[in-house]
Amino acid sequence: MIKLLIIRHGETIENAGNICQGQQHGCLSELGIQQAKNLASSLKDELIDVLYSSDLQRAIDTANEILTFHSKLELQTDTLLRERSLPLWEGLRFPENWKWEYLPEGSETNEDMMNRARQFISKLLKTQDGKYVAVVTHGGMIRAFRTVIANKPASDYFSWDVSKNTSVSRVELHVDGNHRLLEVNNTDHLDLETPGTAQLFS
Prior knowledge:
CATH topology: Rossmann fold
Structural class: alpha/beta
Strand order of the largest sheet: 3-2-4-1-5-6
Order of helices and strands: EHHEHEHEHEE
CATH class: Alpha Beta
Helix content: 25-40%
Shape: globular
CATH architecture: 3-Layer(aba) Sandwich
């Protein structure tokens, strides 16, 4: 069994400006930096064995804040954890009245996203069994993870709530495939004037 934390990156300048990032790097805003610091403080006493991140800079910068309290960890980046590719929109403002269900030609599909989630979960189960793993990724990938973990079809991908920046979801991964989604989109650390420590696993 693997204890898994799935974390969304902090707010970016692009998030605040309604700009599509997709697989562009993005840059944490001042708020996003503070969110990441609060997140890191809330996890400071967690016994994390392995820390993964998307290789996109907004996720790496968020993960690096976690490393300030876990200096013995080595951050591992993985392209499987990237946000959805949206080549015709990336770097531009989202169109008015757009919907995720109607994405431009050439975009990754929900099935593509779920296949990446499955590949990453399979990789973890083969290499990190028994470990406590934290993953910093993106809103689109979090929906993919949740759909796969709940064993739902791709048509349910958009039924999940949007993950807030630096939200934490708590999961148990099992080799028999009976995964458990224990907590979704926890942002208690954002409500604290002085960030404390959240024990996410008993």
